[in-house]
Amino acid sequence: MSTSVHLVALAGPGANPVDDVRQMLALHFMVNAFRAGAVVAVLGAVIGWYMVLRRQSFVGHTLAVVSFPGAAAALWLGVSVTAGYFAGSIAAALVIALVPRSPAGRPGSQESAVIGTVQAFALATGALFVSLYGGFLDSVTGLLFGSFLGVSDGQVAALAVVAVVVLATMALLGRPLFFATVDRNVAVARGVPERALSVAFLLVLGCTAAEVSQITGALLVFALLVMPAAAAQQLTARPVLGLCLAVALGLAVVWLALAVAFYSTWPVGFFVSSVGFAVYLAAVAVRLVRDRTRRVAVPGAGRVGAAAPGMAVT
Amino acid sequence: MTTAAFFVFAHPFLSSAFGAGTAIAAASGLVGYVVVLRGQVFAGDALSHVAFTGALAALAFGVDLRLGLYGGCVAFALLLAVLGRRSEADDTVVGSVFAWVLGLGALFLSLFTTSSTGTGGSGGTTGVNVLFGSILGLSGSQARADVLVSAAVAVALVALARPLVFATVDPAVARSRGVPVRMQSTAFLVLLGVTAGVATQAVGALLLLGLLAAPAGAAQRLTARPFRALWLSAGIAVGSMWVGLTIAYLVPAVPPSFGILGVATVVYLSTFAWAPMRRRHSPAGAGGQAFPGGVEPSVEPLVTP
Fold this sequence. Notes:
The complex is a heterodimer. By secondary structure, chain A is an all-alpha fold. Chain A is 76% helix and 0% strand. Chain A has a single domain (3-293, 301-306), classed as ABC transporter involved in vitamin B12 uptake, BtuC (Orthogonal Bundle). By secondary structure, chain B is an all-alpha fold. The longest helix of chain B has 30 residues, at 140-169.
């Protein structure tokens, strides 16, 4: 918030965009914002792509917001807030993984009640820690709505390390997880450990949510997880192309939002979610036009769920 | 119990809190059961964030908070009804929309905080109150309004309950029997929107999901009969409200929202220990899912055309 004071003092965007970019990058906090934004955009897009594919938006959103009580507890105890973010999200991921999935009938009605309860209880715990901490309300809104513009060099490095670890894990899990998601029964028959994979994915999702929420705040993580991925899946059904597209869209969304926010007093989070939503709407429009011109009558033809399930897992 | 009765009437703010809290909890418990049965918890999640944005939009533009709260929630409920009609309810679409709405909320929070710092700077506090609730701060007239709205929601839900449960458990048969399935699901989403609006004032926008999900989940695990579960869900919600408020009163460090949701969560958690114990006694089992076996016999005769 305090940085926005600097921003007001600056002139608006000039005629020459190169000068504008140079002006932005002359400020160290903006450089760090672009760096941190790039890390969380890439991570959010890759993990979000799998989240959207697996139809786990509710879980993803829950894991994102439960990083808040972890961080609030860390504030209260006076330990590292980063550790708090990770502890909150990973603990919630484990609790959700413990829930027995409904074997038959309607999918997951009990599961969704559990997820909802975990989310609300975790947030209530966050409110408790905030009340115990008795500190400044600014730090509460900071935890919830983020602080893009106050990222230090050390934080950027830590973010990058975690991102590399998470992406390396996904490089190992990616193919079997895709197989198990697109055609669960065949994957199980082929000996893919579907249950272990979904637990592992929950943990990866939790780590990602904790990582991203340090920058965007617990409430706005979800925008970076769902929007670029959903837009990419509207545009292509191919997994590798879709992942690359999601990453590109995520980067574009975050950088564009940061650049716009640089010349505005409005919060960065608003621009991130608005640019992301505009990109998603544009992707939906492109798909609708394309469907109409191609006259594809197959429902859901533009989705990844309809991709060829027979990909080999070696 | 007598001491509890004593302290409730000792302070007017407590009788407001207990009165409004009871009504809000009953409405949330009733609506929540149907939400869980229909698998629409994610819609409740989305609405809880829309409630935040609606309330802060009203504050930022200087109108009554409740106008934005109810307006935002009902509008979003109608949007969900339209989206759900077009195709199967797609959580990615819902997620994208409400993530954006939340971004708008961040904007309104910042606008409101900036505009109110000149006049005393209560913006941040109000924002946090909208998120986490301030049931002990309800005035007498606010509490009366909340009781009226909650009572209306509860009556409407009980009136709709039988055909609604029928349509949820077996939509195809219900449709062929002449139950207006679409209209009902729209009406139900609007009820859910109003519930989100009224519950935001009690436990806050972020926590109302727990009041919808936890008592309902517990009730569903305890009995397979839908109407027994419906009343049980309302009972657990009201009980959690009372115990939670009492704890918050006795231990000042505990925010009321945490007390209420803590009790509801503990109740839900204990049903996970209790249900397997019961299943051991009766092999047919009340193993959590309320359908389809337990539902149809009790519902079918009631919806004769």
